[in-house]
């Protein structure tokens, strides 16, 4: 939160009508300040390091980059809130601290924004950003109990590449056991506890 005791927000939404509606809701809240509204990520400036929340429509992220949202936004540490008009894969939405639906009312939206800030403060995603998209895929597979051969077959890579990825993951995270990696994957929403 900045000096004015307001959470600073950037909204990235291509629909002017939806953006105007969200802006109107935020403007009525004394603890939030909408700093900028963008139609896509091309205009996002990573220099805005004092931003607390980024509300973004996942549709503006290129399909191939949707599983690496923080890298798409220059590894931001702000709370990320998905603004959804339709359904998305669960693994896409897990990257966000919260998800606002197009049919949420104003009170629910504000509640979710506050929740996103709390979630981001309690579970910062910075360690996760150290992993490449492929390493996150491998970590997810390891946490689900797949063997090196099964992982190699699933991603069409060699077993030696899998072993190399696993070694890099362990070094970056400082976690050497499969149970530890599994807990890490659950805590960082790469997998859901119901996947077991």
Mind explaining what this structure looks like?
By secondary structure, the protein is an alpha/beta fold. The chain folds into two domains: 7-127, 3-Layer(aba) Sandwich (Rossmann fold); 130-195, Orthogonal Bundle (Arc Repressor Mutant, subunit A), CATH 1.10.10. Helix content is 43%, strand content 14%. It has helices at 16-27, 69-72, 90-93, 106-122, 126-129, 133-143, 148-155, 159-173, 178-187, and strands spanning 7-12, 32-38, 53-56, 79-84, 98-101. α1 links the parallel β1 (7-12) and β2. It starts with 6 loop residues before the first strand and ends in a 9-residue tail after the last helix. The mean pLDDT is 84.
What's the CATH first level of the largest domain?
Answer: Alpha Beta
Q: What is the oligomer described by this structure?
A: single chain
> The biggest beta sheet, please?
5 strands, parallel
Total helices: the number is 9
Order of helices and strands: EHEEHEHEHHHHHH
Show unreliable segments: none
State the helicity in percent bands: 40-55%
CATH superfamily of the largest domain: Response regulator
Give the class from helix and strand content and strand pairing: alpha/beta
Overall mean pLDDT score?
84
| Strand residues, percent | 5-15%
Jot down its keywords:
196 residues, Rossmann fold, Arc Repressor Mutant, subunit A, 9 helices
Summary of the model, kept short:
The chain is an alpha/beta fold and 196 residues long.
Question: How are the SSEs ordered, and which strands pair?
Answer:
Elements: E1 7-12, H1 16-27, E2 32-38, E3 53-56, H2 69-72, E4 79-84, H3 90-93, E5 98-101, H4 106-122, H5 126-129, H6 133-143, H7 148-155, H8 159-173, H9 178-187
Parallel strand pairs: 1-2, 1-3, 3-4, 4-5
